[in-house]
């Protein structure tokens, strides 16, 4: 099972201040829309999402089907297959992907400490 590109999605109070802070750490804007209050910042293979006013807590995010440059992978584990596997392990879901669909879909689980994990497939 391959989860795809990994990033930390941070809930920020001031996206402009956070942008400057992470730029000072060597990150550059990779994607997103400042006017819509979200940016994806990149430093080497490391990705950090900055999201203002979209969710309360930080989220660990995996993108099946993408590498760290948002390029589609030739081969990957579909989000629905990952979900099915986790269900077989009795993992509790906060939000589920519709297993009758194909293409983009997502689900959310929480680890034992309550940290949200988003599996978000865009392809």
Automatic annotation (TrEMBL):
Using the record's annotation, list all stretches that form the Glyoxalase/fosfomycin resistance/dioxygenase domain: 8-117
Q: Output the InterPro entries linked to this UniProt entry.
A: Glyas_Bleomycin-R_OHBP_Dase (IPR029068), Glyas_Fos-R_dOase_dom (IPR004360)
In terms of Gene3D superfamilies, this protein maps to: 2,3-Dihydroxybiphenyl 1,2-Dioxygenase, domain 1
Q: Which organism is it from?
A: Flavivirga jejuensis
Protein name (record):
VOC family protein
């Amino acid at each position: 099972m391959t989860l795809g590109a990994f990033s930390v999605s941070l809930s920020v109070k001031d996206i402009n201040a956070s942008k400057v802070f992470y730029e000072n750490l060597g990150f550059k804007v990779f994607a997103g829309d400042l006017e819509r209050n979200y940016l994806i910042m990149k430093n080497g293979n490391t990705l950090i999402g900055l999201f203002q006013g979209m969710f309360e807590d930080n989220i660990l995010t995996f993108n099946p089907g993408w590498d760290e440059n948002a390029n589609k992978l030739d081969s990957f584990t579909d989000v629905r297959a990952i979900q099915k596997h986790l269900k077989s392990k009795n993992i509790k879901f906060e939000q589920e992907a519709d297993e009758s669909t194909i293409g983009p879909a997502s689900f959310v689980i929480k680890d034992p400490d309550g940290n949200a994990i988003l599996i978000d497939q865009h392809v």
